[in-house]
């Protein structure tokens, strides 16, 4: 299931990139490249509205997909890790407490 979310997120990102690159901040963008076609069928203002709404919808879709995909990450049990050499040695033989070190006597001054 996580794989499907990944594909959908990547697809939405590519479409969002296309929508952003097609837009022109000064209003030229897609509406200016089609010339008369944009005015006759959809109108210049309609084209920019569709691109802007599409940008917002795709950005929201990416956010929703990212947040919902976290619910499908398996929360399975942690695999038991093998014991380290120190743990194995400690478990097989009792550990002898070390004797406390006594400080060495200070050298005498002549």
Automatic annotation (TrEMBL):
This is Protein-export membrane protein SecG. Residues 100-110 have a biased composition (Pro residues). Its main location: membrane. The chain crosses the membrane at residues 55-73. It is found in: Cell membrane. Belongs to the SecG family. GO terms for molecular function: protein-transporting ATPase activity. Involved in protein export. Participates in an early event of protein translocation. InterPro entries: SecG (IPR004692). Keywords: Cell membrane, Membrane, Protein transport, Translocation, Transmembrane, Transmembrane helix, Transport. PANTHER family: PROTEIN-EXPORT MEMBRANE PROTEIN SECG. One of its GO terms (cellular component) is plasma membrane.
